[in-house]
């Protein structure tokens, strides 16, 4: 029996492996390269589960993360974050060890890299396909062609194609919404491809959001996918429509430290430094997680009236329904499904399997 003494991130290995296998099979069905993003789990062990499923290329969000996974034997790595010129020394060291792909979105970045890189790297141009975070709009043909010309004249920057994270898919609230957004992404990309005066076979297109990769059915014009959250999913992905609640692979076990009958609340050891302060609104209630209990096939949610209602640094306040409040006593452990598994995993730093084995991050 696992002894919980502090906030602990539980991981259901069977669900996680099933999520991985499902995405592997989807990529194979659509003849897509599969380059999963490791930023969600950040774990060598879970990386091995991906490798066992046939994955050969990966995506990360930082040079530090790339270096860690290079040490684990991964040799084809994309850093899906606009290139940080202040890390050129570390990039040079990494480029000597692996087949490295960078995101380069600005001529000044490309020109500096041309001067300072010691080894060749591959480069993607990041496309803004609607999220308005980073990257060039697909309508900026002049800017895109200018970058391509710089790469073609470079002896160290080898243009690979385009990368996009359609993060606006997180605004979806149904499978239909996801597929509508996904189609708009395809339309933008394919319009860009038509506008470029070049053979589309000489470059690749990679997209990387979990909702579109999970529920999209048409990948025309796409060559590769790099979702990350799909390994765990979470309440946000369930709300979006990317997954079922039964696909959520992680939950946080927290000790109960106090009870307040007058307001039907319990205090738990589990706060913002464990869950983050990312919230969602479901059925008109804003919360930071739903209380569940372990079940044979993952987690069984108690009811909609039992949720993580408030967070401070170490404290969590759980609002209970009348029935659920009577189930909880001081000294018990309550299990909470996270809103955003990526942030929760980052904050807690390791996983507890049902067997009691612990899996660490880098």
Automatic annotation (TrEMBL):
> What are the entry keywords?
Isomerase, Lyase
Question: Keyword Lyase, does the record have it?
Answer: yes
Q: Give all residue intervals belonging to the D-serine dehydratase-like domain.
A: 249-355
Any one GO MF term held by the record is: alanine racemase activity
What EC identifiers does the entry list?
5.1.1.1
Q: Which SUPFAM superfamilies match?
A: PLP-binding barrel
- Determine if Lyase is one of this entry's keywords: yes
| UniProt record similarity statement | Belongs to the DSD1 family.
What is the protein named?
Alanine racemase
